[in-house]
Amino acid sequence: MSRLWTNKPLALALCACVAFTFSCAHRKAVVAPEPPSEASAEAKTAPQPPGEGTTVVGPEPRVAAAGHPESGVTTSELPADLEELNKAGYLKDAFFDTNKSELRPDAREALAADATWLKEHPTVKILIEGHCDEHNTAEYNLALGWRRANAAKDYLVSLAVAADRIATISYGEERPFGTCHDESCWSQNRRVHFVITAR
């Protein structure tokens, strides 16, 4: 026995082998879960009343025909001049709550209508501008404007508008739509604005 312990590599190999054997002996068998019965499947799908602290989220808005000027106009019938095209108001802005980049229900509805119009005009390319009110620092507002623009882009892409048709930029608080210093203007400045860049 003393000769075994003087041969350290052999002793270590023997200890590892014994430890491995004991660890394998105590493993539990893996059993596949039983498929759910019809009763449990029905119980899972039955609507449950919201509990305390639960947020109820309504369904996504239905993507319907855009209610924009001259709906049904083909791309070839759109104004050739981009400035005139942008003034026509085919795409509607989406608005945000203070310091938020999450899409409100009214913003989702506006973006759904914009997505419908963009899919009807597959050659049109757009720039989404992220804007903020004058609260916070310039750096914070630039980052917030970027998040807002990209939230709008991601939502349009989820509605099957090709991502390569959409560019984003943030202006933060630098290009306000309303210039007064109260909520009536600040609410108008918390937006994403659409600019058609190619038809």
Question: What does this protein look like?
Answer:
It is a single chain. With 199 residues, the chain is α+β, with helices and mostly antiparallel strands. It has a domain at 79-198: 60s Ribosomal Protein L30, Chain: A. The chain has helices spanning 2-6, 8-25, 38-45, 82-87, 105-120, 138-158, 183-189, and strands at residues 94-95, 125-131, 166-172, 191-198. The longest helix is centred in the C-terminal third of the chain and has 21 residues, at 138-158. 22% of the residues are buried. Residues 27-32 and 63-70 have low confidence and may be disordered.
Structural Rg: 30 Å
- How many separate helices? 7
The residue-averaged pLDDT reads 77
N-to-C series of helices and strands: HHHHEHEHEHE
Number of strands: 4
Mind telling me the CATH class of the domain at 79-198? Alpha Beta
Largest sheet: 4 strands, mixed
Helices and strands: which structural class? alpha+beta
State the share of residues found in helices, binned by percent. 40-55%
- Do you know the CATH topology of the domain at 79-198? 60s Ribosomal Protein L30, Chain: A
Strand order of the largest sheet: 1-4-2-3
Task: State the low-pLDDT regions, or none.
Answer: 27-32, 63-70
Primary descriptors:
extended, 41% helix, 199 residues, 7 helices, four-stranded mixed sheet, 60s Ribosomal Protein L30, Chain: A, alpha+beta
In short:
The chain is an alpha+beta fold and 199 residues long.
Blueprint (SSEs and pairs):
Elements: H1 2-6, H2 8-25, H3 38-45, H4 82-87, E1 94-95, H5 105-120, E2 125-131, H6 138-158, E3 166-172, H7 183-189, E4 191-198
Parallel strand pairs: 2-3
Antiparallel strand pairs: 1-4, 2-4
Helix pairs in contact: 5-6
